[in-house]
Amino acid sequence: MSNRIASKLLAEFIGTFALIFIGAGAGAVVGDGVGLPGLIAIAFAHGLTVMAFAFAYGSVSGGHFNPSVTVGVLASGAMGTGEAIGYIVSQLVGGVAGALFLSAVLGGTATGLGTPALAHNLALGATSLTITPAAGFMIEAVLAFFLVTVVLTFFLVTVVLSTAVAGRAGNLAPLAIGMTLTLNILMGGALRYFLCFLA
Question: For 63-76, how does the pLDDT look when each residue is reduced to its tens digit (9 = 90+)?
Fold first, then answer.
Protein backbone atom coordinates (compact mmCIF):
# COMPACT_ATOMS: atom_id res chain seq x y z
CA MET A 1 0.00 0.00 0.00
CA SER A 2 1.43 3.36 -0.97
CA ASN A 3 2.01 6.03 1.65
CA ARG A 4 -0.52 8.25 -0.12
CA ILE A 5 -3.43 5.79 0.20
CA ALA A 6 -2.33 4.73 3.70
CA SER A 7 -2.45 8.34 4.92
CA LYS A 8 -5.89 8.80 3.33
CA LEU A 9 -7.25 5.68 5.01
CA LEU A 10 -5.76 6.67 8.36
CA ALA A 11 -7.30 10.14 8.05
CA GLU A 12 -10.72 8.60 7.33
CA PHE A 13 -10.31 6.21 10.28
CA ILE A 14 -9.39 9.01 12.70
CA GLY A 15 -12.10 11.39 11.49
CA THR A 16 -14.82 8.75 11.66
CA PHE A 17 -13.58 7.57 15.07
CA ALA A 18 -13.83 11.16 16.33
CA LEU A 19 -17.26 11.69 14.78
CA ILE A 20 -18.71 8.62 16.49
CA PHE A 21 -16.90 9.12 19.80
CA ILE A 22 -17.82 12.80 20.13
CA GLY A 23 -21.16 12.86 18.31
CA ALA A 24 -22.63 9.68 19.74
CA GLY A 25 -20.99 10.50 23.07
CA ALA A 26 -22.87 13.79 23.20
CA GLY A 27 -26.06 11.93 22.33
CA ALA A 28 -25.47 9.38 25.07
CA VAL A 29 -24.56 11.91 27.75
CA VAL A 30 -27.17 14.54 26.87
CA GLY A 31 -29.87 12.00 26.04
CA ASP A 32 -33.29 13.03 24.88
CA GLY A 33 -34.64 14.21 28.20
CA VAL A 34 -33.63 17.84 27.71
CA GLY A 35 -35.59 18.46 24.51
CA LEU A 36 -34.49 21.04 21.98
CA PRO A 37 -31.44 22.36 23.91
CA GLY A 38 -30.11 18.79 24.06
CA LEU A 39 -30.76 18.31 20.37
CA ILE A 40 -28.85 21.51 19.62
CA ALA A 41 -25.90 20.30 21.71
CA ILE A 42 -25.89 16.94 19.91
CA ALA A 43 -26.14 18.61 16.50
CA PHE A 44 -23.24 20.95 17.23
CA ALA A 45 -21.14 18.07 18.61
CA HIS A 46 -21.51 16.28 15.26
CA GLY A 47 -21.17 19.36 13.06
CA LEU A 48 -18.18 20.83 14.87
CA THR A 49 -16.41 17.45 14.89
CA VAL A 50 -16.83 17.08 11.14
CA MET A 51 -15.74 20.68 10.61
CA ALA A 52 -12.64 20.36 12.80
CA PHE A 53 -11.50 17.07 11.31
CA ALA A 54 -12.30 18.17 7.76
CA PHE A 55 -10.02 21.15 8.36
CA ALA A 56 -7.40 18.80 9.82
CA TYR A 57 -7.61 16.02 7.23
CA GLY A 58 -9.47 17.47 4.26
CA SER A 59 -6.26 18.04 2.35
CA VAL A 60 -5.21 14.43 3.01
CA SER A 61 -8.38 12.42 2.27
CA GLY A 62 -11.10 14.90 1.43
CA GLY A 63 -12.60 14.47 4.90
CA HIS A 64 -15.54 12.22 4.02
CA PHE A 65 -15.91 10.43 7.42
CA ASN A 66 -19.17 8.89 6.21
CA PRO A 67 -19.74 6.04 3.73
CA SER A 68 -22.67 7.88 2.11
CA VAL A 69 -20.38 10.81 1.29
CA THR A 70 -17.81 8.41 -0.15
CA VAL A 71 -20.47 6.74 -2.30
CA GLY A 72 -21.57 10.18 -3.53
CA VAL A 73 -18.00 11.15 -4.40
CA LEU A 74 -17.57 7.79 -6.18
CA ALA A 75 -20.82 8.32 -8.12
CA SER A 76 -19.62 11.76 -9.21
CA GLY A 77 -16.52 10.14 -10.72
CA ALA A 78 -14.13 11.99 -8.40
CA MET A 79 -12.59 8.78 -7.01
CA GLY A 80 -12.05 5.20 -8.10
CA THR A 81 -13.90 2.12 -6.88
CA GLY A 82 -10.88 0.60 -5.10
CA GLU A 83 -10.14 3.79 -3.23
CA ALA A 84 -13.83 4.17 -2.28
CA ILE A 85 -13.91 0.63 -0.90
CA GLY A 86 -10.79 1.39 1.16
CA TYR A 87 -12.39 4.57 2.49
CA ILE A 88 -15.61 2.77 3.44
CA VAL A 89 -13.72 -0.01 5.24
CA SER A 90 -11.63 2.58 7.13
CA GLN A 91 -14.77 4.52 8.04
CA LEU A 92 -16.58 1.41 9.28
CA VAL A 93 -13.57 0.28 11.33
CA GLY A 94 -13.13 3.82 12.70
CA GLY A 95 -16.81 4.02 13.60
CA VAL A 96 -16.82 0.68 15.37
CA ALA A 97 -13.60 1.57 17.22
CA GLY A 98 -15.12 4.92 18.26
CA ALA A 99 -18.26 3.18 19.52
CA LEU A 100 -16.26 0.58 21.45
CA PHE A 101 -14.09 3.27 23.04
CA LEU A 102 -17.19 5.30 23.90
CA SER A 103 -18.78 2.22 25.47
CA ALA A 104 -15.65 1.66 27.56
CA VAL A 105 -15.53 5.31 28.67
CA LEU A 106 -19.23 5.54 29.54
CA GLY A 107 -19.44 2.14 31.22
CA GLY A 108 -21.27 0.23 28.52
CA THR A 109 -24.90 -0.77 28.67
CA ALA A 110 -24.88 -1.11 32.46
CA THR A 111 -25.17 2.67 32.83
CA GLY A 112 -28.11 3.00 30.45
CA LEU A 113 -26.45 5.96 28.70
CA GLY A 114 -27.47 6.11 25.09
CA THR A 115 -30.09 3.39 25.46
CA PRO A 116 -33.04 4.20 23.21
CA ALA A 117 -36.36 4.37 25.00
CA LEU A 118 -39.91 4.86 23.82
CA ALA A 119 -42.19 7.49 25.33
CA HIS A 120 -44.33 6.07 28.14
CA ASN A 121 -46.92 8.41 29.64
CA LEU A 122 -45.14 11.45 28.21
CA ALA A 123 -47.03 14.52 29.42
CA LEU A 124 -48.12 16.85 26.63
CA GLY A 125 -50.22 19.46 28.35
CA ALA A 126 -53.38 17.76 29.56
CA THR A 127 -52.80 14.61 27.52
CA SER A 128 -50.43 11.72 27.98
CA LEU A 129 -48.65 10.00 25.10
CA THR A 130 -47.27 6.48 24.88
CA ILE A 131 -45.35 5.26 21.84
CA THR A 132 -45.81 1.55 21.28
CA PRO A 133 -42.93 -0.51 19.86
CA ALA A 134 -44.82 -0.88 16.55
CA ALA A 135 -45.43 2.88 16.28
CA GLY A 136 -41.80 3.55 17.25
CA PHE A 137 -40.60 1.18 14.55
CA MET A 138 -42.76 2.86 11.90
CA ILE A 139 -41.63 6.34 12.94
CA GLU A 140 -37.97 5.34 12.75
CA ALA A 141 -38.45 3.45 9.47
CA VAL A 142 -40.15 6.41 7.81
CA LEU A 143 -37.54 8.82 9.14
CA ALA A 144 -34.59 6.61 8.28
CA PHE A 145 -35.61 6.09 4.68
CA PHE A 146 -37.36 9.25 3.58
CA LEU A 147 -35.72 11.88 5.73
CA VAL A 148 -32.21 10.75 6.53
CA THR A 149 -31.36 8.52 3.61
CA VAL A 150 -32.89 10.54 0.83
CA VAL A 151 -33.23 14.21 1.74
CA LEU A 152 -30.63 14.97 4.40
CA THR A 153 -27.96 12.76 2.84
CA PHE A 154 -28.62 14.50 -0.46
CA PHE A 155 -27.99 17.86 1.26
CA LEU A 156 -24.74 16.65 2.83
CA VAL A 157 -23.37 15.00 -0.31
CA THR A 158 -24.34 18.01 -2.44
CA VAL A 159 -22.45 20.36 -0.12
CA VAL A 160 -19.40 18.06 -0.06
CA LEU A 161 -19.37 17.78 -3.85
CA SER A 162 -19.97 21.51 -4.40
CA THR A 163 -17.47 22.78 -1.84
CA ALA A 164 -14.70 20.25 -1.24
CA VAL A 165 -14.67 18.16 -4.42
CA ALA A 166 -15.35 20.99 -6.88
CA GLY A 167 -13.21 23.36 -4.80
CA ARG A 168 -15.75 26.19 -4.87
CA ALA A 169 -15.44 27.06 -1.18
CA GLY A 170 -11.66 26.93 -0.94
CA ASN A 171 -10.47 26.67 2.63
CA LEU A 172 -14.00 27.15 3.98
CA ALA A 173 -15.34 23.81 2.68
CA PRO A 174 -15.04 22.13 6.12
CA LEU A 175 -17.12 24.92 7.65
CA ALA A 176 -19.87 24.43 5.07
CA ILE A 177 -19.80 20.65 5.50
CA GLY A 178 -19.81 20.77 9.31
CA MET A 179 -22.64 23.26 9.42
CA THR A 180 -24.66 21.21 6.91
CA LEU A 181 -24.35 18.20 9.20
CA THR A 182 -25.40 20.38 12.15
CA LEU A 183 -28.45 21.61 10.27
CA ASN A 184 -29.32 18.07 9.16
CA ILE A 185 -29.29 16.84 12.76
CA LEU A 186 -31.28 19.83 13.98
CA MET A 187 -33.94 19.17 11.35
CA GLY A 188 -33.90 15.38 11.57
CA GLY A 189 -33.93 15.34 15.37
CA ALA A 190 -36.63 17.97 15.68
CA LEU A 191 -38.75 16.19 13.08
CA ARG A 192 -38.30 12.93 14.98
CA TYR A 193 -39.76 14.54 18.11
CA PHE A 194 -42.59 16.05 16.08
CA LEU A 195 -43.49 12.72 14.45
CA CYS A 196 -43.41 10.96 17.83
CA PHE A 197 -46.16 13.31 18.99
CA LEU A 198 -48.26 12.51 15.91
CA ALA A 199 -48.01 8.73 16.27
Answer: 999 999 999 999 99
Strand partners, 123: 128
- Indicate if the pLDDT at residue 190 is higher than 90: no
Please give the Cα distance from 166 to 173 (Å, whole number): 10
Given a contact cutoff of 8 angstroms between Cβ atoms, the answer to whether 11 and 61 are in contact is yes
- Cα distance between residue 11 and residue 178, in whole Å: 16
Query: 129 — phi, psi (to 5°)?
Result: -120, 135
Confidence at 14, pLDDT banded by 50, 70, 90: very high
Torsions phi, psi for 32 (to 5 deg): -110, 10
Judge whether 107 and 29 are in contact, CB under 8 Å. Answer: no
Q: What are phi and psi of 128, to 5 degrees?
A: -125, 140
Let me know: does 192 contact 118? Beta carbons within 8 Å.
no
